[in-house]
Amino acid sequence: MSRYRKGANAERELLQLLHKEGFAVVRVAGSGATALPCPDCLALTKRKKFAFECKAWKGKYLSIAREQMQSLLLWSKQAGIPVYIAWKVPREGWLFIKPKDFKKSEKAYSIKLKDALRAGATLNVLIGKQKQLKVK
């Protein structure tokens, strides 16, 4: 399966999950190929609004190019909608990570899986159905 198809399938899966929770959802066509900053997906209710950059990645870390993350942060600021990195982790499910939890280097923003598991939220926590458990 191509990387594009894997990513697109993950985006569609996330949108289905959010739709079942009562969100109006949209997948942004060509989000990764355009020069304009935009996230992969949007999920909205009257009270909650989220933007997601989706990553389906099996590995011990996740990296996002510096330019891409900065574009997402600019979009978030202009739209007034928080952006999350939605990482589909094999055998763990979806993690929703704030950009501030990534470590910034000259070329990329990155986070180790163990740090993402600690800092990230599950879908139920993100949408307010469950409280975040504090891991020490």
Structure description:
The chain is of the alpha+beta class and 136 residues long. It has helices at residues 3-20, 66-79, 113-119, 123-126; strands at 24-27, 41-44, 49-56, 61-65, 83-89, 93-97, 103-104, 108-112. It has a five-stranded mixed sheet with strand order 1-2-3-5-6. It has a three-stranded antiparallel sheet with strand order 4-8-7.
Secondary-structure topology with pairs:
Blueprint: H1 3-20, E1 24-27, E2 41-44, E3 49-56, E4 61-65, H2 66-79, E5 83-89, E6 93-97, E7 103-104, E8 108-112, H3 113-119, H4 123-126
Parallel strand pairs: 3-5
Antiparallel strand pairs: 1-2, 2-3, 4-8, 5-6, 7-8
Question: Can you tell me the residue ranges where pLDDT is under 50 for at least 5 consecutive residues?
Answer: none
Corresponding CATH architecture: 3-Layer(aba) Sandwich
The succession of helices and strands, N to C, reads HEEEEHEEEEHH
CATH domain class name: Alpha Beta
CATH topology: Trna Endonuclease, Chain: A, domain 1
N-C termini distance: 38 Å
What would you call the quaternary organization?
Answer: single chain
Q: Estimate the mean pLDDT confidence.
A: 89
**Topology, number of strands:** 8
Q: Write down the domain tally.
A: 1
Strand order within the widest beta sheet? 1-2-3-5-6
Helix/sheet category: alpha+beta
Which band does the percent of strand residues land in? 25-35%
Q: Can you count the helices?
A: 4
**Dominant shape:** globular
Radius of gyration: 14 Å
Largest sheet composition? 5 strands, mixed
Helix amount: 25-40%
